[in-house]
Amino acid sequence: MLRDEQGLLDQLKDKTRFELNIVTKEQIRKLLNIQDNKLRSVLHSDANPILTVFDEAINLNGTTINHTNKKDYMMELVIKDCDYVWRKWKPKSEA
User: Fold this and answer.
1) Which among 6, 32, 70, 92 would be 20 to 30 A from 41, CA to CA?
2) What is the Cα–Cα distance from 47 to 33, expressed in whole angstroms?
3) pTM strictly above 0.85
4) What single-letter DSSP state applies at residue 13?
5) Helix or strand or coil: residue 14?
6) pLDDT tens digits, one per residue of 58-73
7) Phi and psi of 40, rounded to 5°?
8) How many CB atoms lie within 10 A of CB 35?
9) What are the helix (H) ranges across 39-93?
């Protein structure tokens, strides 16, 4: 059992959590900056995928974007993934 539950909660107050779900081979190559998905390539990558995503979340072409909720942030990521051309977007099942 946690001895100081409130102390732990106080430490987490006003903190932001970033999660990164890398689920496709293409995402692995892109985020690790590698040409293939061979284990040796993945393990020898110097890229920092979490830092890359964090930088994207707080800075877009030198302009800081403030999202007030998760929905707006997620929409921004979808639009960015389509190079800011909304008509390029297709559900994953159609891509």
Assistant:
1) 92
2) 6
3) no
4) T
5) coil
6) 665 555 566 777 877 8
7) -60, -45
8) 8
9) 39-44, 49-58, 70-81
